[in-house]
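Regression report. Comparing outputs from two consecutive submissions.

Submission 1:
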Amino acid sequence: MNISRLQLFRAAARVERMHTVPPLHKQTDGEHMFGVLALLDHVYPEAPLRLWRAALYHDVPETVNGDTPSPALHRHTMLRDGMLEADRQVNEQYAMEIKLDTLEKRILKFCDRMELAIFCVEEADSGNIKMLRLYYRCMHSIVSDRLIDVTVNAAHLFDYVKTYVERYYGDQEERLSSMFHGTPNL
């Protein structure tokens, strides 16, 4: 029995997300991972056990390596490569390396990004309209990476969330961009 791995998982549940973009309601990796698992159950209920485990483990290395802001990883390839290697080492050390096929990787990526998009909408519903900037980035990345149609249920969920935001917030993307011009990208 690997008690240190269990302790790592318990600690991972308490890592706070989005420390550079202050949400009204703090979200931990545990809450995020539960959200990803709930989305996986919705978009691909017949997922094999390896995909469920990959979803559960996907942010656990942040317990050891920290939650590096996504914009920094996109801007600095050396940082991204170093963090990927650091995460790989944690995954290896704690036996969390899981081989997924291409479709499974895409489904996990969709669930991870859609969970953040939904969290951003919940924040906007609570009055933190700035989080819609991050929502738009998530939705654009789902589109640009062609993840919308990974499953029929994923496509339906994407359309539902997009329609909800359009109905209650209109198209705020351009207004938010000009309002926060010069501030760091979320």
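Submission 2:
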Amino acid sequence: MLMYSCVVALRALSDVRTRLLGGRLVESIADVFSLLGDPTRVRLVDALTHGERCVSDLATLVGLSESAVSHQLRLLRAARLVRVRRSGRQAYYALDDHHVVGLIHDTRKHVEEDGESHE
């Protein structure tokens, strides 16, 4: 039976440790996942993957009041997940960049994976 050397393991762990995410970055990533832990915000982000929308359209799509949608959009905007464009008195929201779209699409694929073993 082959024994695993703890000395090799410690060196490998030391190498890995230097590549781990740092304190503030870990907190920022956790904040994004925390925001996306709310089904309403996920629905809003999903709606925005289909293009820019005004608050009233988003409210209709997700079945909430404009006030409730505006509140959620403020949180998403503060986290730089969405951006706003103003045209007169109207505000139009869009996903901030392609990374947000990728995050949603990759998460959806992960959730929809059919019973593959992950052991």
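Expected: both submissions complete independently.
Actual: both completed, but the second showed a warning that disappeared on reload.
Relevant detail on submission 2: Residues 38-113 form a domain with the Arc Repressor Mutant, subunit A fold (CATH 1.10.10.10).
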